[in-house]
Amino acid sequence: MYAYGGVTIVNAVPAWLGSAMAIDLRVRVYVDICRPTEICYYQSKLVEYIVKYFMKKYNIPRIKVYISSEIPPSSGLKSSSAVSVALIRCITSRFSIYEPSIPRLAAELSRLAGVSFTGALDDASASYYGGIVFTDNLNMNILKVLDLPKEYTTVLLFHATRNPVDVDRLRRCAYMFRDIFELAYQGEIFRAMTMNGLLIARLLGYNEDIPRKALEKGALAAGVSGNGPTIFAITRRGDEGPIYEYFSLYGYTKVVDVIGVGMYENSY
Ligand SMILES: Nc1ncnc2c1ncn2[C@@H]1O[C@H](COP(=O)(O)OP(=O)(O)OP(=O)(O)O)[C@@H](O)[C@H]1O
Ligand SMILES: O=C(O)C1=C[C@@H](O)[C@@H](O)[C@H](O)C1
């Protein structure tokens, strides 16, 4: 089973209201029963937390988990949410468990496992549904899921390590992020994405000049995704050349398609 990574439209850490867009970076997860003679270990605290939740609640046997991820860890591209969603889909399908909301459960477990500040329901929902999602992470509500025209693509610049996240500093700016969320919710996705992405760059200490220059070069939106450090730009498909060349001056750059709702495949 797999799930997708994403880029941020509105970061939920400041105001608990989040929005994200799914992109075609995949995490693939496969599970199998761990035989009594085998030593089965978990790749991370998050994986262990999720497996133990299902062992305790549904009495499933001990399992081994295989993960293959195209999403660089700690990049701001929703690696942990994609792992949680793919793993929960895999376990529920393998053991025929009915789970009413996989993204909500992924968010709850990721908050309890201590790998996200708000549970990142926005990231988990984009990872699960594809398209563009809007969520209220405080009340664990998925507010809206929108499809995305296939004419857009993302250019990603993987160029730095993550700076510490000063949550208090972000939360002092909650009023601005609420306005940005409202703008996105009304349909001004790219404007909101850019305002969020530049503000996050400023507040978390990332380079603002690179996304600004990408906008001058024709990007429809640009900024820092999640809590950084990845810088992204959105362009129409076919227009990504100048941004790709520009980003390549600063580090490893990749063009990745956006994922619409319904592009989700059910099988591994
Ligand atoms: N590929 C993976 N395999 C196993 N566990 C993972 C993987 N990616 C992330 N995790 C778990 O999630 C935790 C947080 O991951 P990470 O810092 O990559 O979050 P992220 O989702 O990239 O951040 P952001 O929310 O800003 O996009 C890790 O410490 C690890 O426990
Ligand atoms: O840790 C969290 O709760 C979050 C992290 C980032 O991905 C954000 O973009 C997301 O909205 C919330």
From TrEMBL:
Recorded GO MF terms: ATP binding; shikimate kinase activity
One GO CC term, this protein: cytoplasm
Enzyme class: transferase
Intracellular or extracellular location(s): Cytoplasm
Residue span(s) of domain GHMP kinase C-terminal: 191-247
Reactions this protein catalyses: shikimate + ATP = 3-phosphoshikimate + ADP + H(+)
EC number, as in UniProt: 2.7.1.71
Cleaved signal peptide residues: none
Annotated pathway: Metabolic intermediate biosynthesis; chorismate biosynthesis; chorismate from D-erythrose 4-phosphate and phosphoenolpyruvate: step 5/7
Location of the GHMP kinase N-terminal domain: 46-131
Record: residues binding ATP: 72-82
Family listed: Belongs to the GHMP kinase family. Archaeal shikimate kinase subfamily.
HAMAP family: Shik_kinase_arch
Record protein name field: Shikimate kinase
